[in-house]
Write a structure and sequence with these properties.
With 437 residues, this protein is mainly beta. It is built from six helices and 22 strands. The chain folds into two domains: 177 residues, Immunoglobulin-like, CATH 2.60.40.640; 163 residues, Immunoglobulin-like. 22% of the residues are buried. One of its GO terms (biological process) is protein transport. This is Arrestin domain containing 2.
Length: 437
């Protein structure tokens, strides 16, 4: 007698709940292999493709397959869907000169708890199933409130799974478990995530307890929100006022924060690095949109109470005689990429902010005035242009087209780009920086 239960399921958006309950077109089937036990029964271990992704409010539907080679008595077949965020780590503590102990830190947050009975007799007695394949469909909706994106870390995880238990008379309870992924959408097309990020920082370089000049870093990026695979243009200026060479670089870091019992544990890792050329003494280096590409990484986790995943763009320079000078610009890794209109909004804010005083990057000098009209137009051409129109000139053809056509011609023209605005505005309060200042 062979028993081989399987779980097949898929995640379906909440807008398709009705079709999900009536048409079982499931994806990402989990393949199982049987392992025969000493009692003549076989159990299955799951492997194969990963299940689909789900979000808050989605309906997870599927079926449990039970294969029998003979008549079998079953008490019940129950399903339990769970989702937890869990953290755990240990730290060594000293209790004296010759003794020590280990302190444990752990915590958990429940996000999903759904139970469903797939098979059970009404009177509490057993149900007799004949040999062959038996299918038990199931369907449940994820909570409408915000869930947390699935995550695996060194000191904690956020996991969701479906577990099925088969209860039989005088037999061990058999279980099968299948995990699924939850991805909570993070839309970077919001004002907060489209806002440019900028800052400046400086530090005094020292050699043998003697100050040898100041080193400063100024940097800016177009926006705060990005998605994996995008390229971040980095605008930066490195002003080396010291007597030593410095080397600038930029890199993206991921910070995993785990919280338990008021104690915090962090893990930092570098995602990608961008190195610049060395900057000599009393020199300045400018990055006009140096590109740093975001590799495939997980989205930011911001809504969990005990697990946080944050990203930062660090623009740094090694200062001789002191610690590294780093300017931190926060990033948010989203799941919904930038829309076309969001791209224009971002570029507009970027172009406007490039002329701000804090950036101080290559402010153009006062342009020369245009030449006189007489210098480029002859007297004969001037008299011809200034002459009044003759009666023979016919302007009736101008309005031969419908008047609405002229309105349409200008109605759908896009607004001028910001590059058409005077690129050399007057800045009376700004003076060019001296390299020795």
């Amino acid at each position: 007698m062979l028993i081989a239960p399987r779980i097949i399921y898929s995640s379906i958006p909440s807008s398709h709940v009705f079709s999900a309950l009536h048409s079982f077109s499931f994806h990402n089937e989990c393949f199982l292999e049987s392992q025969r036990s000493k009692h003549g029964l076989s159990w299955v271990q799951q492997h194969g493709t990963a299940p689909g992704r789900a979000s808050s409010g989605d309906v997870v539907s599927g079926k449990v397959l039970l294969e029998l080679t003979g008549e079998t008595k079953v008490h019940s077949l129950k399903l339990h869907a769970e989702g937890f965020a869990r953290v755990h780590w240990t730290e060594s503590r000293s209790a004296g000169a010759s003794s020590a102990y280990t302190q444990n830190y752990s915590d958990e947050v429940e996000y999903l708890n759904h139970r469903e009975v797939l098979l059970q007799a009404d009177n509490g007695d057993v149900t007799v199933l004949q040999s062959g394949k038996h299918e038990f469909p199931f369907s449940f909706q994820l909570p409408e409130e915000t869930l947390v994106t699935s995550f695996e870390g060194k000191y904690g995880s956020i996991r969701y799974w479906v577990k099925v238990k088969l209860h039989r008379p005088w037999a061990t309870v058999r279980k099968v478990k299948k995990e699924f992924t939850v991805i909570e959408p993070i839309d970077i097309n919001t004002p907060a995530l489209l806002a440019p990020q900028a800052g400046t920082k400086d530090k005094m370089a020292r050699v043998w307890y003697r100050n040898c000049g100041q080193v400063s870093v100024t940097a800016k990026i177009d926006r705060k929100g990005y998605t994996p695979g995008e390229v971040i243009p980095v605008f930066a200026e490195f002003d080396n006022g010291s007597s030593r060479c410095v080397e600038p670089k930029a890199f993206i870091t991921q910070t995993q924060t785990f919280i338990a019992r008021g104690t915090m544990k962090q893990k930092h890792s570098v995602v990608v690095t961008l190195r610049g050329d060395r900057v000599g003494p009393r020199c300045r280096e400018t990055w006009h949109g140096r590109a740093i590409k975001i590799p495939p990484v997980g989205p930011s986790v911001l809504q969990c109470r005990i697990i946080k995943v944050a990203y930062t763009l660090k623009v740094c320079v090694n200062v001789p005689g002191t610690s590294k000078l780093c300017l931190d610009l926060p990033l948010v890794m989203g799941t919904i990429p930038l829309h076309p209109f969001g791209s224009r909004t971002s570029s507009v804010s970027s172009q406007c902010s490039l002329n701000l005083e804090w950036l101080r990057m290559g402010i153009p000098e006062q342009p020369e005035p245009p030449p006189d009209y007489s210098a480029i137009v002859s007297d004969e051409e001037a008299e011809q242009n200034m002459a009044p129109p003759s009666a023979e000139d016919d302007f009736t053809g101008v309005l031969q087209r419908p008047y609405f056509a002229y309105i349409q011609e200008f109605r759908f023209r896009p607004p001028p780009v910001y590059s058409e605005v005077d690129p050399n505005p007057q800045f009376s309060s700004i003076r060019r920086r001296c390299m020795t200042c």
